[in-house]
């Protein structure tokens, strides 16, 4: 019974770690790095164009560079912020006159790539959220239910031993289990007072029988 319970706890631990793991994080990171490089090129080229001697070229540079300043676009921000700000910039670039500027500067294709990467990053972030929700609501729930059932069996078995074959070792084990239950219950109640919820929401803990 102890081995079964141990395996059940390990299963829950694996499910918990999996639920907190960023499933497509490596892919998201790679795409974000690619987008950073592309947007940096667009921004820097536009900034350099602002310094060209030809007034029309310099004006093109200012028109393309300005949205980066207006929306305070930074590549060290959280992905959600970067996604939103780039989408705002992309809307400006989609205007006919800005698109003409981009084409004249040879940047239109890079903007399209940045738009595509942003859409892919958003999709992967949604997938990650869905995957994490599955593990939190599915695998973790099953693992927790299994461990609670096995724990209840262990409690019943110890209670039975206290009745039919009481000795010091069994009594010490029962006392240890009771102390552990009390500590767990105290932590659970403190968490509820602070508005916290465990991984499955409001889950009623296993109640030990009177003797254990």
What does this structure look like?
The protein has 212 residues and is mostly helical. It is built from seven helices and no strands. It has helices spanning 2-20, 25-49, 55-70, 79-93, 96-105, 108-164, 168-193. Helix 3 crosses helix 5 (96-105) and helix 4 (79-93) packs antiparallel against helix 6 (108-164). The longest helix has 57 residues, at 108-164. The chain is rod-shaped, with a radius of gyration of 29 Å. The two termini are 16 Å apart.
Question: What tags apply to this protein structure?
Answer:
about 210 residues, rod-shaped
What is the overall pLDDT average? 81
Tell the overall outline: rod-shaped
> Which class best fits the helix and strand makeup?
mainly alpha
Give me the count of strands.
0
Estimated share of beta-strand residues:
under 5%
Rg measurement, Å: 29 Å
Please give the oligomerization state of what you see: single chain
The major beta sheet can be summarized as: none
């Amino acid at each position: 019974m102890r081995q079964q319970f141990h395996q059940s706890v390990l299963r829950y631990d694996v499910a918990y770690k999996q639920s907190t793991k960023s499933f497509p994080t490596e892919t998201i990171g790679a795409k974000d790095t690619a987008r950073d490089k592309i947007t940096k090129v667009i921004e820097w080229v536009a900034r350099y164009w602002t310094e060209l001697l030809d007034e029309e070229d310099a004006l093109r540079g200012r028109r393309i560079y300005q949205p980066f300043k207006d929306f305070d676009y930074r590549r060290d921000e959280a992905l959600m912020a970067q996604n939103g700000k780039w989408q705002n910039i992309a809307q400006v670039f989609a205007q006919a006159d800005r698109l003409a500027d981009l084409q004249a500067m040879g940047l239109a294709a890079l903007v399209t790539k940045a738009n595509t990467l942003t859409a892919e990053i958003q999709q992967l972030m949604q997938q990650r959220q869905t995957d994490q929700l599955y593990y939190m609501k599915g695998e973790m729930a099953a693992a927790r239910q299994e461990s609670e059932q096995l724990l209840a069996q262990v409690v019943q078995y110890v209670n039975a031993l206290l009745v039919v074959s009481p000795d010091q070792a069994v009594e010490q084990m029962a006392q240890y289990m009771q102390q552990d239950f009390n500590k767990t219950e105290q932590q659970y109640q403190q968490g509820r007072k602070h508005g916290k919820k465990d991984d499955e929401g409001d889950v009623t803990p296993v109640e030990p029988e009177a003797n254990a």
